[in-house]
Amino acid sequence: MLFRKHAPSKLADQAQSPGKAQGQLGPILDRFAIEKDHSTLSSVGSVTKKSQFPPLTQIATGSLVGPNPMKHPYSRSQTHASAIVVVAAATLMAVSPVRSAFYEQAGTAGSAAPVEKPSKSWLAEWWDGKYASGNWFGVRDTLEDRGLTLGGRWIGVYYGVVDGGIPNIRGSYFDEEIKFTGELNFAKLTGWEPLEGLKAFGEVRWRDGLNPNLRVGASPNFQPSHFQSGKQWRLMTFGLTYTTPELFGIKDFLTVTGGWLQPQKEFIEQPLSKLFVNNAFESSKGIGANIPFSSSFSTWGGTLKIKPVDWYYAKAGLFMAYPQATSTDNHGLAFEGFGPDPSQNGVFAIGETGFTPKLGASKLPGKYAFGGFYYEQDNNSFFGTPYSGFYGFYWQIDQMLFREPSEPAPRLQPDAKSVVDDKSGKTFKEPVPPSKPKLSDQGLSFFSLFTYAPKYNNILPFYFHTGLVYKGLIPTRDNDQLMAAFGFGQYSFFNIEALQEKGNVNQPNYTAVLEVDYRIQINKWAFFQPYLQYIIQPNGTGAIENATILGFETGVIF
Asked: Which residues, in sequence order, are CB contacts of 37 under 8 Å at separation 6+?
């Protein structure tokens, strides 16, 4: 024990006079709030309602009375409790500018060695880390410092079709995806500043599993899984991208990307819709019903994006179009396009422009975009008229509607050097740079997408989806997300007429899907997401019963 009742300590003598003790120990406690189980000692000789600690003057003089005056749930004795408080204060003061004065006044207390904060166990470090595979004994950080960032992700989805769909087909379904990514930052690799903004990238993927649509019988756009195209090993993308660090005085003004690219990854960026399981939301988005617009479509091409101000951008892309682009058989290696007849290759042109404002005092982010595309490929209308390609348009509206209160930034005192901790009310005398409050990412967000294409040669000329995502709705579950989305697609009336002329009595007119999910963020690298899908008129005709699917998605970042 550092202090005894009759120890000839200068601090102990001064502690007999409360006024004097407060004059010398007050600055210490004004700088540091001693917390135990969120209980705060806020001033000398006084204890908050939550705190179980006695006045520090009693600790310093050893004048505690009674069998167990501390009465703290974590204190076994007067000696242990006194040591905790004094050693904590000494440890904090060991790194403070006024520690010398404290040591002079405290006498022998100045000789106490600082107590280091206990380090985490390797298991805790792993659990609280960013990746399931850990830091590779420091190799991962070293590679990132040199410019090479490697990543991986596994996602598995279980589908339980509990009602509807195709009769006399039973069973549960499971499919999965493993993805490996790499990025090389040339400026970090070489240490040469002119290469700032130049990066190389690449991605490969494996998909496998049973197709739940065998039971559901939905049209491709609305099938319950988005993992059924481009199965087995597949080369997804590789190339180069360059973003100007500063041009015309504007940061990130120009971005140029080229290589073996995924057009779906370059356009209609809507992160919230990709949280869902159904193919309509996550991948196809209506456009995939008419042209090969999915993550499995990889092709040669390039994009150019300009961003003259923070709230506006314009982007254009030019790619190679070819038949059977998402086939599993080509494994993403169709570098010549359509192998059997490269003369059928064409051009895929797409452009998009949009506004990305931050609204109100809460700076609610939004995106309001419009785009159009032309996919060159010989085709016939539903009545046999030949055409050289497909075209369409889309409109995207995403907006955060509500942001939960954010943590305030430290408040500067009039001297512009010291700050006030709003939680404890204490003033800290160390000079600090001014900082902005960090905006909370918790709150309610909205997303939507509308697509249109001519009905004479597009099976799904009209499609829209909309949804809501709330992050951090449940107290203490700040990173969980509650989600709901609805999608609707209207099939071509020209297709209906053509089928009627052929004597087909079941013509598709519309399909709709409702999905509700709750993503439980287990830690930084793992999640578990139960979901419900309800698909109305799965194939559009009404001949197949509405399907109800209960399941879960789970994922690990490694």
From this structure: 73, 74
Note the pLDDT tens digit of each residue in 327-376. 999 999 999 999 999 999 999 999 999 999 999 999 999 999 999 999 99
Locus of tokens 């900082």:
435
Ranking 24-38, 372-386, 461-475, 497-511 by mean pLDDT, the lowest is 24-38
CA distances from 486 to 289, 317, 335, 514 (A): 17, 29, 37, 5
Determine if residue 222 is left, alpha or beta; phi over 0 gives left, psi from -120 to 50 gives alpha, anything else beta: alpha
Q: What is the pLDDT of residue 553?
A: 98
- Which DSSP helix (H) or strand (E) runs through 171? none
Report whether 111 contacts 87 (CB < 8 A).
Answer: no
Contacts of 483 (CB under 8 A, 6+ apart): 272, 275, 276, 467, 468, 469, 470, 515, 516, 517, 518, 519
Locate 52 and state its tokens: 């179980």
Residue 42 pLDDT greater than 80, yes or no: no
What is the token pair recorded at 457? 């040669």
In sequence order, the β-bridge partners of residue 398 are 367, 447
Domain boundaries, the chain: 10-111, 124-405+440-557
Mean pLDDT for 416-435 is 54
Residue 333 backbone zone (phi > 0: left; psi -120 to 50: alpha; other: beta) = alpha
* Interacting residues of 500 by C-beta distance below 8 A, sequence separation 6+: 507
Which of 524, 13, 501, 508 shows the shortest CA–CA distance to 221? 508
pLDDT band (50, 70, 90) for residue 199:
very high
**CATH architecture observed for domain 124-405+440-557:** Beta Barrel (2.40)
Beta carbons within 10 angstroms of residue 174's beta carbon: 15
* Lowest-pLDDT range of 54-68, 190-204, 231-245: 54-68
Q: pLDDT tens digits, residue range 480-517? A: 999 999 999 999 999 999 999 998 888 999 999 999 99
446 touches 468 (CB < 8 A): yes
How far CA 171 is from CA of 224, 390, 546, in Å, comes to 15, 38, 17
Task: Give mean pLDDT, residues 514-535.
Answer: 98
Cα dihedral sign for 87, 93, 98, 99?
Answer: positive
At residue 76, φ and ψ (nearest 5 deg) are -95, -25
Q: Which residues contact 433 (CB under 8 A, 6 or more apart)?
A: none
Structure tokens at 515: 């999905």
User: Distance between CA atoms of 379 and 323, rounded to whole angstroms?
Assistant: 11
Selection from 313, 335, 331 nearest residue 322 by Cα: 335
CA distance 239 to 199: 9
Q: How far is CA 74 from CA 39, 80, 84, in A?
A: 12, 10, 10
pLDDT of residue 168: 82
- Put simply, whether the predicted model's pTM sits higher than 0.85 gets the answer no
Q: Which pair of tokens denotes residue 377?
A: 């490929």
What is the spatial distance between Cα 381 and Cα 495, in angstroms, rounded to a whole number? Answer: 9
